[in-house]
From TrEMBL:
Imm-5-like domain ranges (all copies): 26-147
Pfam families reported in the protein's UniProt record: Imm5_like
Lineage: superkingdom: Bacteria
Lineage: Bacteria, Pseudomonadati, Bacteroidota, Sphingobacteriia, Sphingobacteriales
Name of the molecule in the record: Imm-5-like domain-containing protein
InterPro entries: Imm5-like (IPR048667)
Amino acid sequence: MKVSIGKKAEHSRRYAWIAEHRGGPLSLSDRQQLIRWARECIEHVLFLTEGQADSRILDALNTAKTWEASGVSTGTCMKASLAAHAAARLSSNEIHKNISRGAGQAVATAHMADHSLGGAFYALKAIKIANGNVLAEKQWQEEKLSALPVRLQTLIRDTWQEKKLDQRI
């Protein structure tokens, strides 16, 4: 007996993060809002690269922005994500590594919405490494998050706590 994608999705522990077209609850609009939040979190800390951001970071962020407007495919986003992660692996600068990882996670939100947490998480890590004000950055992220529907805010906050991300910054 063949099980439909929807039935498989319902049994996933990540069900709340699965797109509607894969049998989950997240609409395209939900995913567009999540990718925007993740992208904005990384863009907000780009100043830490002092104008020396790897072009793959910028490409990932631009690709995410284009995907928000339905301008590129998820496959294009996945390629941009891999490129940003490659930039992280090749960098010797810990701040740049975290910003690259965050950009990679942000654009990967097109593929799997829970990657949106990575944009915020790696932005906070970059701020911490730079001896910046992590609390102020977290408050800025929360302000941006408050523009999303309450159910998405709750999903992000609950998953953040479940993964104990504050303890890993």
